[in-house]
Design brief:
The chain is of the alpha+beta class and 411 residues long. The protein is built from 13 helices and 21 strands. A six-stranded antiparallel β-barrel has the order 13-16-15-14-17-18. Strands 7-2-1-11-20 form a five-stranded parallel β-sheet, covered by helices on one side. A hairpin with a 3-residue loop joins strand 15 and strand 16. The protein starts with a strand and ends with a helix.
C-alpha cells in the first residue's frame, strides 16, 4: 500500500482519489478551496455536462490537442465508466442533444455529492483549504509536498498534480500545477484561453447583442484558407460572438488569431442552397409585392437581425418589394449566406472554459500519467497539454487521466 498525495479536488483529482483508494492505497487529497469541485460546480451553466455518450473512437475525434495520448486512458476508463460510477453513488443521469450527458436533476452539486460519497466510503482523507506551496523533489524522485500553512512538509510515496489550468481563476485555477511541473524540470507549452468567445471588429455586433441563432454554419478563414467549419448555435454579444459553435472554434484558431485577424463567415440559412434560398425569397417577395422592403423580411430573419441584413444588402428599406432588382436580390442572398465579421482576438482566461496548452505530454507516460523525468510524480486533467471541444469531452479527459493516474500506482 502506498501513501498517495493528490493536489487538486476537481474532476481529475477526485477521479484519481477514488481510483487510488479503490486499489487499497492511503489517499490524501489537498484542495486549496473551502470545498471540492468548485469548477465542476459551474460547468454546463451549473448543470455539469459530465461526459458525452458517443463511442470511444468518437470521443477521441473530439479532442483537439494530443488525442493519441488519450487512447489508453479513454479505453481504460471511458464515458460509460464515469456514468456508472455516478449513478451507483446516487446521481442518475440523462442524455441530451449531441450526446451530452447531464444529471437528471440538472444540478452539478449532485455530481460532486456522488463523488464525495464514494471518496468517503473508500476512506479518502480530504484536506480543504490545503494550499500546496511546492513539491518535494530530491535527486529525480518526488517525495511529497509542502503546504503554505506553516510550510508543513507532507511525505508521500506518490504525488498526483491535478490542479487544473488558468481558466476561471475564481475557482482556484491559478496555474500552480504549471509552476510545479516547471520546477520539476518539465516543459509547459504555450498557455492560451480556449472554449472562449471571440472579439469582433465590426460595431454592428452591439446592435445584435443577445441574439441567439440556432442551426447556422460558421466558417473561419485566414484569407482563402479554411481553418474551421461547424454547424450549430451562435450568440452575438456586445463585444463579438459566442455560443457553442464559436467556443469550439477557439480551440482551433486561437494561436493563429494571435498573429493576425481572421474572417468569420456565417451562413444564416445553411439548410438551403443559394438557388433554394433565392426561390424562397422570390416566393416571399411575390406574397409581399406591395410592401416596403423593410416590412417583408420577418419570415426569413429574427427582428433584431433585419435592419443589419438590410444595411448589408445595400437595398433601401423604403423601396417597394416589387421594385427590387435581381442584382439587389443577389446582394440579399450574399448577405444571408456569407454574413462576415472580422475576428480580432479572444476574451481572456476569466471567460475561457478551459486552458489550451500545459505540461508537455511527450514527457508523460500515457498509460499511468507518471512523469518520465521525475519518479513517483503524476499529472492529470487540465494541467496537461490536452483539450477538446464543447460537449462533455474536456470533463472526460479529466475523469480518464485522473483514473489512469490513481489506478496505476503500484501496490
Amino acid at each position: 500500500m502506498s501513501r498517495v498525495l493528490i493536489i487538486g479536488g476537481g474532476a481529475a483529482g477526485m477521479a484519481a482519489a477514488i481510483a487510488a483508494a479503490g486499489c487499497g492505497h492511503e489517499v490524501h487529497l489537498y484542495e486549496k478551496n473551502e470545498k471540492l469541485g468548485k469548477k465542476v460546480y459551474i460547468t454546463g451553466k451549473g448543470r455539469c455536462n459530465v461526459t458525452n455518450s458517443c463511442d470511444t473512437e468518437e470521443l477521441l475525434k473530439h479532442v483537439v490537442t494530443n488525442s493519441r495520448f488519450l487512447y489508453s486512458s479513454f479505453y481504460g476508463f471511458g464515458n460509460q465508466d464515469i456514468m456508472n460510477l455516478l449513478e451507483r453513488n446516487g446521481c442518475p443521469l440523462k442524455t441530451e442533444r449531441g450526446g451530452r450527458v447531464f444529471p437528471v436533476s440538472d444540478k452539478s452539486s449532485d455530481v460532486i455529492g456522488a463523488l464525495s460519497r464514494q471518496m468517503k466510503d473508500l476512506g479518502v482523507r480530504v484536506h480543504l483549504s490545503g494550499e500546496v506551496r511546492e513539491l518535494m523533489v530530491d535527486d529525480g524522485v518526488c517525495q511529497g509536498l509542502v503546504l503554505y500553512r506553516g510550510k508543513r512538509q507532507i511525505w508521500g510515496d506518490q504525488v498526483i498534480v491535478a490542479t487544473g489550468g488558468l481558466s476561471y481563476e475564481s475557482t482556484g485555477s491559478t496555474g500552480d500545477g504549471y509552476r510545479f511541473a516547471q520546477e520539476a524540470g518539465h516543459k509547459v507549452t504555450e498557455l492560451l484561453p480556449a472554449l472562449v468567445p471571440f472579439e469582433v471588429k465590426e460595431l454592428v455586433v452591439e446592435e445584435l447583442a443577445g441574439l441567439s441563432l440556432r442551426n447556422v454554419e460558421a466558417v473561419i478563414l485566414d484569407g482563402k484558407k479554411e481553418l474551421y467549419r461547424e454547424f450549430g448555435e451562435l450568440l452575438f454579444t456586445h463585444f463579438g460572438v459566442s455560443g457553442p459553435v464559436i467556443l469550439s472554434a477557439s480551440s482551433f484558431v486561437t494561436a493563429r488569431l494571435k498573429e493576425k485577424p481572421l474572417t468569420l463567415s456565417i451562413d444564416l440559412k445553411p439548410a438551403l442552397s443559394q438557388e433554394q434560398l433565392d426561390a424562397r425569397v422570390r416566393r416571399d417577395f411575390e406574397e409581399s409585392s406591395n410592401k416596403l422592403f423593410k416590412n417583408s423580411l420577418s419570415h426569413l430573419y429574427p427582428a433584431k437581425l433585419i435592419p443589419v441584413i438590410i444595411g448589408r444588402s445595400g437595398i433601401s428599406p423604403e423601396k417597394r418589394v416589387n421594385e427590387i432588382t435581381r442584382e439587389e436580390r443577389q446582394r440579399l442572398l450574399d448577405a444571408t449566406k456569407h454574413f462576415t465579421l472580422t475576428l480580432t482576438g479572444t476574451r481572456g482566461f476569466k471567460e475561457a472554459i478551459i486552458t489550451k496548452g500545459g505540461v508537455a505530454v511527450k514527457e508523460i507516460n500515457p498509460s499511468t500519467m507518471e512523469s518520465k523525468l521525475v519518479k513517483n510524480l503524476r499529472f492529470a486533467g487540465e494541467v496537461l497539454d490536452l483539450d477538446g471541444v464543447t460537449g462533455g469531452f474536456n470533463l472526460q479527459i479529466a475523469w480518464s487521466t485522473g483514473w489512469a493516474a490513481g489506478s496505476s500506482i503500484p501496490k
